[in-house]
Amino acid sequence: MNKTLIYAVILFFTIIQISISQGKKIDITDNDYKFKLTLPDSWVKMKYEETKNHDGISYVYNNKKDSTITCMIMSFKVPESKDINDFIYVLELDASLNIPQRNSDFTNFDFGSYDGKYAIYKDLQSTELIYYIRTKNDNSKSNFVYMLRFITTNYNKKVEQSFKDIAGTFQLID
Q1: Per-residue H/E/C for the chain
Q2: Which CATH number is 71's domain given?
Q3: Model-level pTM?
């Protein structure tokens, strides 16, 4: 009887510890660029930059557990709702971003106040999953476009799903 009770107590505390450790997250909330994104606690911020005109920002996060994975978040303030295809075209051609060739068709999504597209990009060094998002507030003077860029040299279905899970936490905030 005592052994059963001891095993039950050990099992209980093990489950509690696992639940607590899995619940840790890093919330990225940017009130100026009106978004929120949640990363697992295995990520660390490496860089943050804002343009001199305060109309664009860039965050870069690396995964502490897997040095082959990077996440870049870019946001730009735009005076009116931007055509998503124009936004994608401009970023794909931006030499400073060094985005590889697209390796898949776009997948579209629409969440009412914002919509976007994502696709896989690939070259010899890395594979990337890139989300392009735009707000659709035609009656507002403040609209935004976003790029969530996940980069890895070790791409597989598990890594892809973790990227999609992170992108799924993206939210607009007031």
Answers
A1: CHHHHHHHHHHHHHHHHHHHHHCCEEEEEECCCCEEEEEECCEEEEEEEECCCCCEEEEEEEECCCCCEEEEEEEEEECCCCCHHHHHHHHHHCCCCCCCEECCCCEEEECCCEEEEEEEEECCCCEEEEEEEEECCCCCCCEEEEEEEEEECCCCHHHHHHHHHHHCCCEECC
A2: 3.40.1000.10
A3: 0.84
